[in-house]
Each structure stands twice: as structure tokens, then as C-alpha cells.
């Protein structure tokens, strides 16, 4: 039986900023557009957290039963791959998290009257499961970054804005894109760390296709585009949004690590700091929006 600490590690807390940041950033845009609906924003956060933790457990389960998490894996603990938890228990945990997201999403749907949200929610859960699940997982075909950009950028931020304002607008879509770029950078850093083990196990991520150098260039391009996005959103809303550039504090060491070509477990701080950069960017957006439009 896995311990509580092992279950917490299996949930991969370093990835949680990719759930929190889109909701904070989307709420910032809602404030700039006239005002947030905090109850709905909280429900959006529950949906996002449930999906991120759920996809982490689903990935753990699917990779574990396929044997993709072999002894040569350099990342943190995997519950199934290490043998500390039964595959059925990890699978149940994944679907339990998806269920929490579904319930929160249903409450949002009833509250707003936008019944098409049910289709969007189902698409999110299916995309989360088939990332590494099923007989033809798209995460094994180098499409993981597309999933992250769409669902933890465009859908998460755009959905949070729409739920609160009934529209998104240019500033919302640019914000969704830059948050998506940062979320992709988290995944790129993760897959760069695992690149050699993934090649050995036959897992074809974008990193295994681009190689070490190409993946580093991809990472640098993503964080650069995110920085440009912050400036564009500030021009569209309020210059207080430039507080989002505070993310540079965490990105400076990650960029240096990419340039210095660190590998293996030395990339774990890059993964952590990239997630924190995304979170700090979103916090900067929220604080900036609140300073421009005091509650």
C-alpha cells in the first residue's frame, strides 16, 4: 500500500500551477472587463485542479501498465511503475478526480445556463484520459504539447473568462495563449528530463522527435512568446498587468539551465521554476487588474 506521502508525490504537485494559473489569469481579465464572479471562479479552479491531478494519475497508470516507467526513468516517483500502488487504485484515483471536475463543471453549467459546457467538459475528460490511455495515446505521438496548449491555455483561461463575462475578447485570447505557452514549457522541461528513458521505452514525445538541442530551443521560444504576450495584454487592458513580468525571477535560472545544457534530474528545478513562473505571471495579472479596478 502506498503511503500518503507517496500518493501526494504521485499527484505531482509541481504541475499544479498549470491548473491554478489559468483561473487566476482568466479572472484577472474578467476584472479588467468589468468584474469577477468569485463563486464561479472558485468552481473553475476546482475543475482545473481535478483535471490536472486526474491526468497525472491517469498518466501514471497508463505508463505503468505499459512498462514505460522503467528502472532507467530519472523523474520522481511513479506509483504504478515503482510498484507501491495497485494499478486499479491509481486508475480509480484518476477517475475520482475527473468526477470532482465533472460535478464542479455541472454546477457551473446550471448556474450559467450554458448547457454546451457539458460537451466541453466531456471533451476535457476524454482528452485527459487518452493523453496516455487507450490503444493509441496521442501523448505517445508527440501531441502532448498541443493538448496542454489547447486545454490548459485556450480552454482553461478562455473558459474562466467566458464563465464570468459571457465573452472572451482579444485580451482574453492573448492571455490564454501566453498561459498556454508557459504550460507547454512545463511539459517540454519534463519531457526533456525524460528524453533518454522515453526513447528506450518507445514513448515518442515531442522532445524525442526534436532531440536535446531542438527541445531546448523550443523551451526558450515558448517562454519568450509568453513574455511578449504579457506586454500585448498590458497594452490591451492596463499597464498594471506588466506585474506579470515578475515571472522573470523564476525564468532566469531556467533559461540559464537550458543554455548550459543541464540534463536528467538537474532539470527538475527547471520544471518547478517554470511552473512557479506561470503561477507568478497569473498572480501579477490578478494583482494588476485589481489595482486598476479596486473592488
TrEMBL record:
TM stretches of this protein: 15-32, 38-58, 92-110, 116-134, 146-164, 170-189, 217-234, 240-259, 271-291
Keyword terms: Cell membrane, Membrane, Menaquinone biosynthesis, Transferase, Transmembrane, Transmembrane helix
CDD domains: PT_UbiA_UBIAD1
Annotated family: Belongs to the MenA family. Type 1 subfamily.
Name of the protein in question: 1,4-dihydroxy-2-naphthoate octaprenyltransferase
GO molecular function terms attached to this record: 1,4-dihydroxy-2-naphthoate polyprenyltransferase activity
Catalytic activity: an all-trans-polyprenyl diphosphate + 1,4-dihydroxy-2-naphthoate + H(+) = a 2-demethylmenaquinol + CO2 + diphosphate
Listed InterPro entries: MenA, UbiA_prenyltransferase, UbiA_sf, UBIAD1
EC number annotated for this UniProt entry: 2.5.1.74
Subcellular location: Cell membrane; Membrane
Pathway the protein contributes to: Quinol/quinone metabolism; menaquinone biosynthesis; menaquinol from 1,4-dihydroxy-2-naphthoate: step 1/2
Source organism (scientific name): Cutibacterium avidum ATCC 25577
Database matches in Gene3D superfamilies: UbiA prenyltransferase
GO BP term, pick one: menaquinone biosynthetic process
Protein purpose: Conversion of 1,4-dihydroxy-2-naphthoate (DHNA) to demethylmenaquinone (DMK).
Enzyme class: transferase
Amino acid at each position: 500500500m502506498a503511503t500518503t506521502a507517496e500518493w501526494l508525490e504521485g499527484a505531482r504537485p509541481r504541475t499544479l500551477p498549470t491548473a491554478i494559473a489559468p483561473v487566476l489569469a482568466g479572472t484577472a481579465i474578467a476584472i479588467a472587463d468589468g468584474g469577477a464572479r468569485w463563486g464561479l471562479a472558485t468552481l473553475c479552479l476546482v475543475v482545473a485542479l481535478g483535471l490536472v491531478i486526474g491526468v497525472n494519475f491517469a498518466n501514471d497508470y497508463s505508463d505503468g501498465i505499459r512498462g514505460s516507467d522503467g528502472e532507467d526513468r530519472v523523474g520522481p516517483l511513479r506509483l504504478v511503475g515503482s510498484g507501491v500502488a495497485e494499478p486499479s487504485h491509481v486508475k480509480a484515483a484518476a477517475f475520482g478526480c475527473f468526477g470532482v471536475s465533472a460535478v464542479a463543471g455541472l454546477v457551473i453549467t446550471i448556474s450559467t445556463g450554458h448547457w454546451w459546457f457539458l460537451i466541453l467538459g466531456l471533451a476535457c475528460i476524454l482528452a485527459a484520459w487518452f493523453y496516455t490511455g487507450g490503444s493509441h495515446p496521442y501523448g505517445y505521438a508527440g501531441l502532448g504539447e498541443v493538448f496542454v496548449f489547447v486545454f490548459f491555455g485556450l480552454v482553461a483561461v478562455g473558459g474562466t473568462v467566458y464563465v464570468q463575462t459571457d465573452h472572451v475578447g482579444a485580451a482574453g485570447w492573448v492571455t490564454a495563449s501566453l498561459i498556454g505557452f508557459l504550460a507547454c514549457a512545463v511539459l517540454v522541461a519534463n519531457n526533456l528530463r525524460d528524453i533518454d528513458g522515453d526513447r528506450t521505452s518507445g514513448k515518442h514525445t515531442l522532445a524525442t522527435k526534436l532531440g536535446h538541442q531542438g527541445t531546448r530551443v523550443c523551451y526558450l521560444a515558448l517562454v519568450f512568446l509568453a513574455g511578449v504576450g504579457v506586454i500585448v495584454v498590458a497594452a490591451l487592458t492596463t499597464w498594471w498587468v506588466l506585474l506579470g513580468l515578475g515571472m522573470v525571477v523564476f525564468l532566469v535560472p531556467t533559461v540559464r539551465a537550458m543554455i548550459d545544457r543541464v540534463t536528467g534530474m538537474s532539470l527538475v528545478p527547471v520544471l518547478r521554476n517554470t511552473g512557479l513562473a506561470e503561477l507568478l505571471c497569473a498572480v501579477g495579472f490578478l494583482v494588476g487588474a485589481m489595482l486598476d479596478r479596486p473592488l
